[in-house]
TrEMBL record, chains A, B:
Residues 35-54 bind DNA. Pfam families: TetR_C_33 (PF13305), TetR_N (PF00440). InterPro entries: Homeodomain-like_sf (IPR009057), HTH-type_Tx_Regulator (IPR050624), HTH_TetR (IPR001647), MT1864/Rv1816-like_C (IPR025996), Tet_transcr_reg_TetR-rel_C_sf (IPR036271). Residues 12-72 form the HTH tetR-type domain. Keywords: DNA-binding, Transcription, Transcription regulation. It comes from the Bacteria. The keyword Disulfide bond does not apply. One of its GO terms (molecular function) is DNA binding. The keyword Nucleotide-binding does not apply. This is Transcriptional regulator, TetR family.
Amino acid sequence: MGRKEKDQQQIEDVRLRILEAAKKLFLKEGYEATSIRKIAAEIKLSPTTIYLYYKDKSDIAYTLHKEGFKVLGEQFMVLQHVESGFERLKAMGRIYINFAIQNTDFYQLMFIMKEPMEFISDKDCCEWEEGEFAFGALQQTVLDCKAEGYFNGLNENNVALNIWALVHGLCSLKLQGHLDHVASAHLHVPEDRNILEEAFETLVLMLDKMK
Amino acid sequence: MGRKEKDQQQIEDVRLRILEAAKKLFLKEGYEATSIRKIAAEIKLSPTTIYLYYKDKSDIAYTLHKEGFKVLGEQFMVLQHVESGFERLKAMGRIYINFAIQNTDFYQLMFIMKEPMEFISDKDCCEWEEGEFAFGALQQTVLDCKAEGYFNGLNENNVALNIWALVHGLCSLKLQGHLDHVASAHLHVPEDRNILEEAFETLVLMLDKMK
DNA sequence: AAATATAATTAACACCGTTAATTAAAAAAA
DNA sequence: TTTTTTTAATTAACGGTGTTAATTATATTT
């Protein structure tokens, strides 16, 4: 019965080819513009065949969303070698921001769009979530910062949540165009100066004040 | 030639009826599910007639987006009577969060979706932006906080930006379902306890540390 | 009353996600 | 090996979408 395993492998192969095609189109033209029909055409399949491998479009979105979390998690790996909690926190923020800027489409899928999250809540079982690893790392780092004298008297989970929200907020406003809009309208910021980085530098100073 | 003015009035009337129908449907079923055809049916017009009054769908989104900023701006009005800068900052955050939670669809249109902002950047002229009033109020409040001894040595514009990003980040993560997901997965938070409010309370404590 | 300008309509294009019915291919049973 | 059964992939179709071009109805002006 070695046949069945090989079939399973072939099925997994098609699943992957669909996903690769979806990713390619998605990174090139964005999620909305990537239709099931285009994905199918890309790998010379009939559109309806896609539905034999994925429940619907948001299922594909969710699978890509998971992949994004895996990539972010890998980039977080280097943080394990940073001893100081506060230094790790800063590095974490920088990695997160870089990831968001360099993988804008993945970031949209992971944190801004609602489709993948809706797919999650539609699922009966709450399986292992890759995003949880990243947040767990942040939690631990905030805890280490507390040991170094930061965030005294503050609930560490809420601090972690706030820091995530802040960095996500910066990225999200940047990706949606609000940051540049406000910068050119309210702040007379030179075009060449990166407003996101400047804000992050101030954030570091702010956190430093919480020792 | 008082005729022409009356015509102008009638044109403005239809424009408004379209917008009201769009808003009603949008608040009930969300932006994506609100089609031009449904808007037209709502006020017994042909779908194509809409295009005589609005350039395209994102034009309608942008007009609604502007209205959202007007409502938020009105809710900010009460802040003028708060003398203390820091108290005003706290109240501002609470108003912003309440607005986001109670007008989730408007909030999506104003800060999360990309269509309205794309419409802005497609426009040749950069006319008065209602959102600027709200951010201006925040800028002034941060300045007042500085006068009260907060945020010493920090660039006030960047501080304002970071605070906005933080509160927006919380709201955005909440609306997208990430906040509740993390809360139930990582933080063992009782269902009845409002995680957003709890995070905000910690934020206030954090800001208080920056005196 | 006829000619012109404008407002609204119908018809049409090129898509979309998704489901049901059908055909082609492979595996199992005879 | 041939027939039956299972499974994989396809075509056809439904009911939508935003948007444009061509056309008709309605006022306004000559």
